[in-house]
Amino acid sequence: MKLKKIYAILAFQLIAGGLFAQEQLDSLAVTKLSPLFSQPTLKNNKLVVPQIKGYEVSLIGSDNKVVIDLNGQISQPLIDKKVNVLYKIVRKSDRAFGEIPMKDIVIKGVYGDKGVGEQPFVIPSLREWYGMDGVFQLRPESAIVLEQQNEESSKVAQLLKEDLKKLIGLDLPVRAGEPKVGDIFIGSKGDKALGNEGYSLKIDDVFSIQAPNYTGKVFGTRTLLQLLAQNKKQLSISKGFSRDYPTYEVRGFMLDVGRKFFTIDFLNDYVEMMSYYKMSNFHIHLTDNAFDKYFNYDWDKTYAGFRLENERYPNLASKDGYYTKAEFIALQKKALRYGVTIIPEIDVPAHSLAISHAIPEVGSRKFGMDHLDLDNPKSYEVVKNIFDEYTKGPNPVFIGEEVHIGTDEYAKSESEKFRKFTDYVIKVVQDNGKKVRAWGALTHAQGTTPVRVKDVRLNMWYNGYADPIAMKKLGYQQISTPDGWLYIVPAAGYYYDYLNTDNLYNNWEPRKIGDVTFEKGDPIVDGGMFAVWNDIAGNGISEKDVHNRVFPAIQVLAEKMWGAADQHTSLFTFNQKKKSVIEAPGLNMRGHYAALDPVIVHLNFDSQTHNQMNNEWKEASTTATQFEKGIKDNGLKFTDETSKLILPIAEIGEQYTVSFWIKPETNLVGDLFVSKNAKVFSDGKGLGYARDGYQYYFDYTLPINEWSQVSITGDHIGTQLYVNGKLIKDMKPFDVVMPYKDKNSGKEIKYKKVQTLVFPLSEISLENAILDELKVYNKKLTSQEIVSEFRTY
Fold first, then answer.
1. What global pTM score does this model have?
2. pLDDT at site 608
């Protein structure tokens, strides 16, 4: 009989230096005992543990530890909740043991229904909600009121104050005392059962947030901000009660900055976005390298990245971008302020080409220089020195309690040496007071050399490398990171370019690791994490391209990793409503602007009243410009190198068109359109654009003393230039073909290079040129529409 959902396991415990084995219960014994766990007994606000003659029974797991904790204590929910728990049974006679679930235990709520109206939509969804009549109204005279003026509450209030200013422009005062109508109240009297990240809301005439811990208070403010962001005009929120808390502790995202550099500003923005979606872990993969086959199989020329300043080995830090220690410490501190934990990763002993570039003697000649030589004691010395520099001492660079050491994809033939090295690195990091994370690899690297288990968590990425059942037997806590569900490799042609978010929403939850599904509430699963791997170094992928892939995944996976699997709204409803949830206050990394009129900016320079700036944007401003005859009435003359047009919109992304008429009086030279992330320029080669260290050319030069209509369109695929209604160049992805063959298969080696652009609009400088009829659309016009636009003038 195959029991797919019951895992009777063989556990090993290290006792006094010897290996003591406990036998597993046979499936027949587990099947026989299972009916005794079909009906719960609830007494005195507790779940009573079943008593079975000849067995010890203990409660080891709950998929809602707020409602039923591991002592069986019940915290009554607002509305009825179903909870699943997991028991461990141990036969007294021989200590053989197994696990049996108790499913769908109904805990009655304080209220018999969900109350009035519809539950407010936020991501992730509120776990418990009871609706009341009326709305809370935030006002210009509202205040943020603290129950106590202590350091913790004051920090939360200051963070909320800053975000409210960015979101809605209100600069609310902070005070202690009794709240008044329209105030926001932050207190610490939340039920302790809510845990570190949970909070409760009472939304009445006052919006009240109660949480026993700092992170719960922060996450309560994120819910408030999401609700206000969806109703920025009225600033009203439906009244009701809520208790909100996560199913899983680890709700994460991993970014490979080793193969592609991301600015510290980008990482700081991501901290704010992840907090806004209550994502708890930001895993930063600081070191890695490209594949040598794209570099003529020459390890010396193969791209490698090490993104953190290192004083012991100054040559480690990548020349094309790295973070100073001060920057990285500040990032981690900011993350903690926002309720997010940074998990830094230094990947060894494979994926380590950056180390062997800096210290060649530690690279493996046998397996490739991206492998450290595990027969060389210097490898151990160097790795210890690197980790010590970041983890040792009273004020380490890695300030959190967990550090990721990589340990993945080393040559299988060296399993025992790999296991020895892995255990060594774990000891180094743990001796410095840190807990350890690692990539699951011990099924691939089977052997007898022991590897530490205590205070080690594994990212479970591929069951062939680390079998979830086997790792559970060994005692490793697991973070669900299955590659077949959760790996993005941009423009690579394998894994996902964009995650299948609909499938994830309907069919995945963290307890699903590859083809293994653990029981609900199994304590071995700490949560989940998705990942972006920038395998193809140099393929033109930009920060914006990566973000375009991450943001839809964040929205869905924040939902899936916070809430229970049975409480989500329908996929259709979620996909409709998620459109109203922004990235975070003050963030618009996509350059996304929703408007019914696709023309979101129209500057015709005839008069200020005819200059269209969509929504609440401020007017444009100019420096050293003057009005002259344009293609239609007035145009804007840029007289010299100081002339500028400043727009209150930084950039436009996703699907867009930027169209304008221009008459250069001399050859245009320099940066024409600029933002923090990109520029459109003109030089001796003609018009082009640059971002993320890449330059692209349209192979076109604008004529002097002639009016030309320029239209640039773009989306997540590529960029197009039209002049006077004609397509000049379509900058779509193209194949880069190596001038040599694959040395193993003899096949052609090639990769796709991406030529996208999120169009820069912050500052326009067109020395000795006249600009007219500048239009920005939040749609990509068709070639026919562009021709029609040209013929209008």
1. 0.95
2. 53
